[in-house]
Task: inverse folding
């Protein structure tokens, strides 16, 4: 199935599956992960807690970087971030086998 996603021009290229995650954002732009579905209220499309970190030129998970912006009551933010870190397997290799085609370059 082909999907069109809009991605920051200076986002890093998606690495191969199993390589270290570089914050390319592709997986989270296509569909939220299970915990992202809870916060986004949908199963497809860009995750609502995905954030672009311009200084670092990479996407970040808002549940990990600014949980207090999304979690209520706020005192639950720390626990939610820890849960998110485990569920999204932060720090491990890329688990996405999505293949990209650059439409802008192709046209
Ligand atoms: S898991 Fe893979 S596709 Fe998702 S942001 Fe990391 S590198 Fe990109
Ligand atoms: S890792 Fe974070 S930003 Fe990405 S889909 Fe999951 S909750 Fe959303």
Result:
């Amino acid at each position: 199935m082909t999907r069109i996603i809009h991605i920051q021009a200076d986002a890093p290229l998606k690495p191969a599956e199993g390589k270290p995650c570089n914050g390319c954002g592709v997986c989270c732009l296509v569909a939220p992960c299970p915990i992202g579905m809870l916060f986004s209220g949908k199963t497809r499309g860009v995750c609502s807690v995905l954030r672009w970190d311009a200084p670092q030129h990479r996407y970040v998970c808002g549940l990990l970087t600014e949980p207090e912006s999304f979690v209520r009551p706020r005192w639950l933010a720390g626990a939610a971030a820890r849960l998110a870190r485990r569920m999204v397997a932060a720090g491990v290799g890329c688990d996405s086998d999505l293949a990209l085609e650059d439409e802008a370059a192709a046209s």
Q: What stands out?
A: The first helix runs from residue 26 to 30. The two ends are 20 Å apart (CA to CA). The mean pLDDT is 90.
